[in-house]
Structures are given as structure tokens and as C-alpha cells.
Design a protein that fits this description.
Length: 131
């Protein structure tokens, strides 16, 4: 029998046993470890392709200003799985959201990377409209 601890959940995650890790995290989550458990749950949910649930947890962690682990890496993976929107000019693209989030955390290097991605996508959009 495996001990039901954060460490046990970490080991299961490292072996990509996301369901098992998620079960442990559900059982042991409490006020003291809530944010750490949410982060690990987000990793599990993303690993299980339950991306909407993982994304929701990531935004909760951001609201709580939790910075021990990089929540944005999970969001980047989730966004990269999403299909690009079909010609919706009104919709804000993930590049802008990611850049703004990194900027808020004073991570200018990553903010710049995401702004550059935004510029590139706008360039492609302009080129496709010209053709």
C-alpha cells in the first residue's frame, strides 16, 4: 500500500500515473497544502487531457498569486493543444494573455517571447489577407 502524501503524488506524476496521483490529491487536500495540491492536480488533469479543468485550476492559482511553481507552463501546454480560432478578430489570442501574465510577474523575457509570437501571428494574418 502506498502512503497518501504529496510526495507519493509527485512520484506518481513523474511516472505519468495521473489518475492515481489525482485520487491521492483529492483525499489529502487541506487548507495547509491546498495550493500545492491544486498545482499538482492541474498537472494531472492536463496529463489526462482534461484541459478545461486544468486551465480553471491554473487561473485559481494565479488569482491566489501562487508563484512557487510555474503555472504558466501548464497553460502554455494547454493553449498549444487548442485549435486556433476561425477568423475571429474580436477574440483575444492566447499570446496576448500569456504575455500580459508574464509581464505582471515581471518575467520580461517570457513576456517578450509571447509578444513576439503575437507579432508573428499578426504578420501571417496580414500576409494571408494580402494574397
Amino acid at each position: 500500500m502506498m502512503f497518501k502524501t504529496i510526495t507519493a503524488a509527485k512520484i506518481l506524476i513523474s511516472q505519468k500515473l495521473f489518475d492515481e496521483a489525482l485520487n491521492i490529491l483529492e483525499e489529502i487536500e487541506n487548507d495547509d497544502n491546498r495550493l500545492k495540491a491544486w498545482h499538482m492536480k492541474a498537472i494531472c488533469l492536463e496529463g489526462l487531457n482534461r484541459n478545461d479543468e486544468a486551465e480553471t485550476l491554473c487561473y485559481k492559482l494565479i488569482e491566489e498569486k501562487w508563484v512557487e511553481e510555474n503555472v504558466y507552463e501548464i497553460l502554455e501546454r494547454i493553449f498549444s493543444k487548442k485549435k486556433p480560432p476561425k477568423e475571429k478578430d474580436e477574440e483575444q489570442l492566447p499570446e496576448e494573455e500569456m504575455a500580459a501574465a508574464y509581464e505582471l510577474l515581471n518575467d520580461n523575457e517570457n513576456a517578450l517571447k509571447w509578444y513576439y509570437k503575437k507579432v508573428e501571428s499578426l504578420k501571417k494574418k496580414i500576409e494571408s489577407q494580402e494574397n
